[in-house]
Design brief:
Layout lengths: L12 E3 L5 E3 L9 H4 L1 E3 L7 E4 L6 E5 L3 E4 L7 E23 L2 E8 L3 E8 L2 E9 L6 E9 L2 E6 L2 E7 L7 E21 L2
Antiparallel strand pairs: 1-2, 2-14, 3-6, 4-5, 5-14, 6-14, 7-8, 7-11, 7-14, 8-9, 9-10, 11-12, 12-13
């Protein structure tokens, strides 16, 4: 079932019957980003320059850190993003339980730093850090947060693991922290039963 369309790009944001949200953008969907996401910082959409490109997904040029969050709040959740490194230096993170200044995330840098983080009341706590094999050009990064159990995954393989008291329900999405060009192929937010 598709979310009500403001333009044809909205048809690519699917709200499924199981409560999941899935976004599969296409080239040219850049102007519709603010229809699906809120940006942190507020002026964050200025930090992304959508590029016309052939193929699946939305190619963007990033020049400042930006977090894109769906406005809906989730409890236990798995957040996945299918990404293609093009010419990007920095890290990509999947974000969960973002509410106010609080959030959790799993990030992977193009140099192989995989980090699972929880931030509450302004205090950032690194739950686990590992060196990971940098995946090929296209990969899936995911974070699972179920109760007090958190996992960071790359291409379905658990890379980091941590425990912390469950946070309040919050928004989920994607954080790009670096510079260069990257393609967003898919973002999936799946509630966990």
């Amino acid at each position: 079932m598709a979310v009500a369309a403001k333009d044809s790009a909205s048809d690519r944001l699917i709200a499924r019957n199981d409560g999941a949200l899935e976004w599969r953008p296409l080239s040219g969907d850049g102007p519709a980003l603010s229809s699906f996401f809120r940006a942190i910082p507020d002026e964050g959409f200025e930090h992304l320059i959508p590029l016309d490109d052939e193929g699946e997904g939305l190619t963007v040029s990033v020049h400042e850190p930006i977090t894109l969050l769906f406005p809906e709040a989730f409890g236990d959740v798995q957040v996945e993003a299918e990404i293609e490194w093009l010419d990007f230096e920095g890290s990509v993170a999947v974000v969960h339980h973002a509410a106010g200044d609080d959030a959790g995330w799993f990030s992977l840098s193009n140099e192989g730093d995989a980090v699972l983080v929880d931030r509450r009341e302004g205090e950032e706590k690194e739950l686990d850090r590992q060196r990971a094999e940098v995946p090929g050009q296209r990969f899936t990064i995911a974070v699972s947060s179920a109760g007090r159990h958190l996992k960071g995954l790359i291409d379905g393989r658990t890379v980091t693991h941590g425990h912390i008291a469950a946070g309040a329900d919050g928004s989920c999405g994607l954080r790009l922290n670096g510079t260069g060009t990257i393609r967003i192929v898919r973002v999936l937010v799946q509630p966990l039963a």
